[in-house]
C-alpha cells in the first residue's frame, strides 16, 4: 500500500497527508470532501440535515411553497412578455378615445409584471436556501497560499466539495422545484432579451430612402416640396405650436420636433414623433455678441438662420439627450457622461468621451414667418455604428 507523504502545498494546511495520484483516483466523493476540508484547514463543527426524516408532509409542503413562488415568477414573466410584444398595448391611443385608459396602463403594467417576476424568483430562491440548504457551522484556519497555483489534489477536492454541496441541497431529487425554477427564470429571461434581440432582426438598410433608415430621420421630407416645421414640445402630444424667430429670447434654447400639415388632427402621427430617438432638436438663439464669434463647419455655412442654430439633441457618444445649454459659456452639456460641445464652434466636442460634433439641422424661416427645416441632417445623428462613414 502506498503511503501518504506529509508536505505543505500551495494554500494547504501543513501536516495533512498528501495522497498520490493513484490514491486520489480511488477515492469516492465523501473521502475527497473530507480530504479537501482538511487541506483547507476547515473543521465542520455542525452540518445538520434540514430534513432528517425524508418525505414528511412538512417537507413536501415546503417544496410546494417554493414551487408556487417560481410559478408566480413564470406567470408574471409571461405577462411582461405579452405586454411588451402585444401591439394593442403599446400603440398610441388618443385621450378622447375609449381605449386611452388601457394605453395609459402600459408602462405601469410593464413595471408591475417585471418587478413581480424578479421578486417572486428571489423569494423562491431565498425560501429554498432557508428550507433545504444545510446550515453548516465551520471553522477555518487562515493562510496566505504563498502565491502558488492549484495542484491536481486541490482541483479534485474542490470539485468534490461543490458536487457534495449540490447533493446535500437535495436539488437533484426535487423535480417540481427544478421545473418551476427553470420555467420562472426562463420566461423572465425571454422577456428581458426579447426586445434587444428583436432590434437585430429588423434590417435598418432595407429602404435607403426611408426615415427608418439609420442615415435619415423624421426631418426628411416624405415627398418633394413638403414643408417640415419646427414644432415646440408642450407636453401634450396633440397640441401643435409652431415657432417664429420672435418666440425665443437671445441666449435661449428650445426643444423642437418635426411637424407636417398632413399630420394635423392625426393623434397617432402627432404622438409617434415624440417616440423617435432621432427626432428631438435643440433650437438655440445666440446672443448678438456671441454670434459674431461663431466658427461654422465646412459645407454647413448656411445651415443657420441669423443667430439661430439647430443641433440634434442626441449625443454622439452613446445617444443620451444633450438636454442642457449653458448660456454664459455657450456650451451644450450631456448629463450622462459629461460630454460638452461648443455651440459657437459647430457644436464640436471640447470635453468628455464624445469624439464627433453634434449633427446640425439646416433651418430657415418660410413666407409665413415660421421656422422650417431645409432638409434632413446631412450625416447620421447619434453614436457610431459599423456602416457609419462620418
Automatic annotation (TrEMBL):
Bias (Basic and acidic residues): 1-10
Transmembrane segments: 66-89, 109-128, 181-201
Hydrolase recorded as keyword: no
SUPFAM superfamilies the record matches: ISP domain
Region (Disordered): 1-21
InterPro entries reported in the protein's UniProt record: QcrA_N, Rieske_2Fe-2S, Rieske_2Fe-2S_sf, Rieske_Fe-S_prot
Localization of this protein: Cell membrane
Superkingdom of source: Bacteria
Keywords per UniProt: 2Fe-2S, Cell membrane, Disulfide bond, Electron transport, Iron, Iron-sulfur, Membrane, Metal-binding, Oxidoreductase, Respiratory chain, Transmembrane, Transmembrane helix, Transport
Topology of this chain in the membrane: Multi-pass membrane protein
Annotated ranges, domain Rieske: 278-372
Gene3D superfamilies: Rieske [2Fe-2S] iron-sulphur domain (2.102.10.10)
Family label: Belongs to the Rieske iron-sulfur protein family.
Function in brief: Iron-sulfur subunit of the cytochrome bc1 complex, an essential component of the respiratory electron transport chain required for ATP synthesis. The bc1 complex catalyzes the oxidation of menaquinol and the reduction of cytochrome c in the respiratory chain. The bc1 complex operates through a Q-cycle mechanism that couples electron transfer to generation of the proton gradient that drives ATP synthesis.
Name used for this protein in its record: Cytochrome bc1 complex Rieske iron-sulfur subunit
Organism from which the protein derives: Amycolatopsis deserti
Taxonomic placement: Bacteria, Bacillati, Actinomycetota, Actinomycetes, Pseudonocardiales
Gene symbol of the encoding locus: qcrA
